[in-house]
Amino acid sequence: MQCQDLGYRTPLDDFGISNVIIEEDEDVMVSVTPTMLNNTGEWVTVSFSGVENPNINDYIAAYSPSNVDITTTSPIKYQYANVSKTYLESGSGSIRFRLVNMYSDYSFALFRNGTAYPIFAKMSNNVGFTNYQQPLQPHIALTGVANQMRVSWASGNATTQYIKWGTSSGVYTNISQSEAYTYTAKQLCGGPANSYGWRDPGMLHTYVVEFDASVQQVFYTFGSDATSWSPEYSFATPVPVGPSNGVRIVAYGDMGKAEIDQSLEHWEEIPSINTTRNVEALIDDGYELVLHVGDIAYAVGYSAQWDEFMDQITPVASRVPYMTNPGNHERDYINSNGLFNVTDSGGECGIPYEHRFLMPGTDHETQWYSFDFGNVHVIMFSTELNFSIGSAQYEFLESDLASVDRSMTPWVIASGHRPMYVDSNNTTPFAGDVTVADELVHNIDPLFVKFGVNLGLWGHHHSYQRTCPISNRVCMGQGYPVHAVIGMAGMGLSTDLDRVQPDYIEVVDDGEYGYCTIETTADTLHMTFFNNANQVRDDFYLQQ
């Protein structure tokens, strides 16, 4: 298959690491306070002075670990010095940064001459954390087995970690050692992921909690006496499978993350902060499951972005199952056995995603799975791996759909990242929206129709779209699948709509960010698209 570079650029991509010139200026002072932080997400102030002829192209860049080689390693993030209003007049100022504990210290460099040909002027003192083994980034996932929940988290280099849990707050009647694992730069398949974007992820941990069917709430903490214990988190046990057991689900795609301190790094998906906060409020209101349909963190080879994404979603993912499938920006890279020979993952080729999001029964070449939740059967598959008729993924989809017990789970939702039906003018060969949609319609649409899939969820196009009940691009009646593109959670909105909207597309909103909710009863499925002002922009009902 022909190689295609989609040409995505980010602020860090434009940082000329190989062009860094070291011209340390003895008159420049850069300092950071405080020098020690107790918890992840605390703030520091970087002060700087003594800059002669200050310029709008001068900036402060954060590095971690503090002793990295700045001529071979990307900064974590940066802010222009003139964010400080005094800078251009006096050559001095200060900027605040929020720091995520990435299990090492930080330092801050003042650069001049812009990002393409950076001139290093001075490095600050170091700022550290009191605990480089702090257990962080909790997230939970279903396993596909009743009365189980997978709990995962991260730590520094501690290989021995435990989870304590019970059915009452503060009363932990169970303690078990987690499985510890990690991944290395050698497992990645290209740059920047295995070169200047690489950063050691520390140790990752997971444990499957098993509970009696009578249990309704689980309280848990994780860590060890040696490394400290996390705060207490809790989750409601999964809704039991049954035709009358309605569920409340939140769904979105293409979210990413953003810096609360407004630093620059890779893409800044600023709306993702509002999306995350709105979803957290839904969890407070009792929503029970999140479906994130690809393009998860948009780390694209910059490892630190995964740590910051996991930090951003902690208030959500620590409390309800956070179920995902891979998008192009997690999986795709040249010669990595993916369906599309493009560079969209920045050399990650799925490895960081797969290690951080342990979905039921998946591995590097089988990123597809299904699970039952209340009265819904959910199928999550990969549009980045072969889905053509006769492929392993196709065989899975056919077998799984044929085996659904509609007397127990009358509703079937199926999700991939790239959309099967979409209003787009992107007809690029191999990886274009329309091109891939044609392949999905040819290969997968007949399965959806044959086995009565109710709802298809897709991302990739950064908009909200909805079809009529449809088969092979023809609007049908009640009982045929309805498809929704829900890629509007954070990444810059797509505007490449077709000149003439396809007849089968009933709703298109390419101007608003937000999220979707899905609520089911025994005979009704209600899906709603909210913008991030929590205003309803579309909703529809499906009936059994």
The value of Rg in angstroms is 24 Å
CATH superfamily of the largest domain: Metallo-dependent phosphatases
Domains (count) = 2
Distance between the termini: 42 Å
Give the topology, please.
Layout lengths: L20 E2 L6 E5 L2 E2 L4 E8 L9 E5 L13 E4 L6 H4 L2 E7 L7 E6 L6 E5 L4 E2 L6 E6 L6 E8 L6 E5 L7 E4 L1 E3 L21 E8 L6 E8 L3 E2 L3 E4 L11 E5 L18 H14 L4 E5 L10 H14 L4 E4 L2 H4 L19 H6 L12 E5 L2 E5 L11 H12 L7 E5 L17 H11 L1 H6 L4 E4 L5 E4 L2 E2 L2 E2 L6 E5 L18 E5 L4 E7 L3 E8 L4 E8 L1
Helix pairs in contact: 2-3
Overview of this protein structure:
This protein is an alpha+beta fold. It has two domains: 113 residues, Immunoglobulin-like, CATH 2.60.40.1930; 297 residues, Metallo-dependent phosphatases (Purple Acid Phosphatase, chain A, domain 2), CATH 3.60.21. Helices cover 13% and strands 31% of the residues. The protein is built from eight helices and 34 strands. The strands form eight sheets. It has a seven-stranded mixed sheet with strand order 23-24-25-26-30-27-31, covered by helices on one side. Strands 22-21-20-32-33-34 form a six-stranded mixed sheet, covered by helices on one side. Helix 2 packs parallel to helix 3. The longest helix has 14 residues. The protein starts with 20 loop residues before the first strand and ends with a strand.
